[in-house]
Amino acid sequence: MSCPLDAPETAPSASSTQAPAYNPLDPTTFVFPEPLAVPTVTVEFCDRCRWLHRATWVQTELFLTFPPPAIGCISLLPLNTEDTAGRFRVWLSKAGQDKPVLVWDRKTEGGFPELKVLKQRIRDHIQPEKSLGHSDTK
After folding, report:
1. Is it the case that residue 87 has pLDDT exceeding 90?
2. Where would you tag: which of 34, 59, 74, 116 has the fewest CB atoms within 10 A of its CB?
């Protein structure tokens, strides 16, 4: 799939108030995306522990296994306070769910997630019928 830089974007739908005409080169006409109606993942991590690379690796692996629309967004949330020292958590949010599900917590689980296990846990929530191939052991 290609994504040409000069391709025109779809203009947002007209509302009852007259907004300026959409122009893909004028930031004043840009509209923030609607909240996603598909699952999203948030990776919280301690920035002082320098876990950004681990968080981006987890993000990449999850997107490769669960491409949109299975997971619509994977957010990285670096934390830098005393009470978040050593934190590495993975949360799953689904539309219509009151609270996100904690899929992994480094402190309570005793370490970082094996990607195989993390993928299985997320799969069990969003696509229980999906085979993970060689990573799948039920």
Report:
1. yes
2. 34
- The token pair that represents 114 in the structure block: 């094996």
Within 13 Å of residue 58, how many CA atoms lie on the same side as its CB? 28
- pLDDT recorded at residue 20: 72
Tens of pLDDT, residue by residue over 12-50, are: 555 556 667 888 899 988 888 887 899 999 999 999 999
Q: How far apart are CA 75 and CA 43, in angstroms?
A: 6
pTM here is: 0.79
Angle at 52 between CA 47 and CA 56, to 5 degrees: 150
CB 132 within 8 A of CB 123: yes
Q: How far apart are CA 38 and CA 80, in angstroms?
A: 29
Instruction: Name 77's Cβ contacts closer than 8 Å, sequence gap at least 6.
Output: 42, 43, 44, 45
Q: Which residues contact 113 (CB under 8 A, 6 or more apart)?
A: 58, 90, 104, 106
What are the backbone dihedrals phi and psi of residue 131, each rounded to the nearest 5 degrees, phi first?
A: -90, 135
Is 42 strand, coil or helix? strand
Which amino acid is it at 51? W
